Amino acid sequence: MLEHYQPAWMSAEHTLLGDSARRFTAEHIAPNDERWRQQHRVDLETWKTAGALGLLLADVPEAYGGMGGDFGHEAVIYRELTRAAEFGFTGGRAVHAIVAHYILHCGTEEQKHSWLPRMAVGEAIGAIAMTEPGAGSDLKGVRTRAERRGDKYVINGAKTYISNALNMGVLIVVAKTDPHAGSKGMSLILMDPRDTPGFSVGRVLDKVGMPSQDTCELFFDNCEVPIENVLGGVEGQGMYQLMGQLPYERAVLGLIASGYSERALALTVDYTKDRSAFGKPLFEQQNSRFKLADIATTVAVGRVFNDFIIGQCIAGTLDSATASMNKVWSSEALGDVVDQCVQLFGGAGYMNEYPIARMYADARVMRIFGGANEVLRELIARDL
Ligand SMILES: Cc1cc2nc3c(=O)[nH]c(=O)nc-3n(C[C@H](O)[C@H](O)[C@H](O)COP(=O)(O)OP(=O)(O)OC[C@H]3O[C@@H](n4cnc5c(N)ncnc54)[C@H](O)[C@@H]3O)c2cc1C
User: Fold this and answer.
1) What is the number of the ligand 1 atom nearest to the C-alpha of 205?
2) pLDDT tens-digit profile of 256-293?
3) Ligand 1 centroid to 75 CA: how many Å?
4) Of the residues 249, 262, 284, 378, which is catalytic?
């Protein structure tokens, strides 16, 4: 059904890129998932392979090393990646793309030319450090301080739950440059995490799911970075820059969540057709059929909503409330879908050797990060 539906935004070029992403996913993502889960990080080589195939920064202009496509090119890549039901590379790539967009839309020409070409080929993996032990949803509570001394910022503080922390080659740090200036005292500062004395990465955090994601604490102990590393070249723009990029981030997360719902449905249809109980396949039991019919409907609605969002992104008209609706709806739908799919798998659905069990644990965080869904509901309500 969905296989034959062609959204208005999709061109032959998008389809071709989707084919390439599908091959990449089958050859380089799916076979490595288990190993990455054990080692708590994705291989750096895989990032470089993705870069060589043009599968990173698909919607960044060619002048900065990207593919010169639009958000539809990004979307087809996420749709193929989520077919592997793998969250390490897929989630890390989303953070990488979000970081690239901060640089693209807020950076100076020099910053764009310095970082984006390396990010496009997978040499510099992007990470962004907003969250701290004492401040997550409420970023005004950030305590990390970047103090200007001569031609340098001296950064002190700590961050936590930071994705891509072991693999990163470029980091955006959210820091207070003026603790007395309220939201105008916040800045985003670019740094090279491999070459900044005083900076260190803590242990990989032990999470409920997404074990292949290198999520860590970061420590800044008198880290010196040149003042020209402030994103956009002007201090105090951090809060506005964050607000400006949030719709993009939420569009990406909505897409990923709805892609995983599609995958969970496909896995469960296959399983219930294959396994029998009481003399017939589970799929022939009325409850299974009704549940799967409901899940398929949810998946179809999610796909159409996401296609609308993709169209808005391509047109440059996506607003924060609509993007938030998509992130909230798609991540909650995913939670519900994987929970019901686990039930249809029975005991097998609780065994980590089955992808559906891993998805159940991996998917939970999608309602928490990228803006907790309650915070996003508040944003949506403000627009009513
Ligand atoms: C696996 C993982 C990866 C992550 N990656 C990154 C990363 O790369 N970079 C980064 O900076 N951060 C990252 N985070 C952090 C993530 O963005 C935060 O966890 C999230 O923003 C919530 O912040 P918090 O954990 O401090 O929760 P809190 O802000 O303490 O909120 C806790 C709960 O309170 C409720 N709540 C909070 N505020 C409100 C409100 N105004 N109205 C109603 N309810 C509210 C919500 O239910 C929320 O879930 C990651 C987190 C995880 C788990």
Assistant:
1) 1
2) 999 999 999 999 999 999 999 999 999 999 999 999 99
3) 25
4) 249
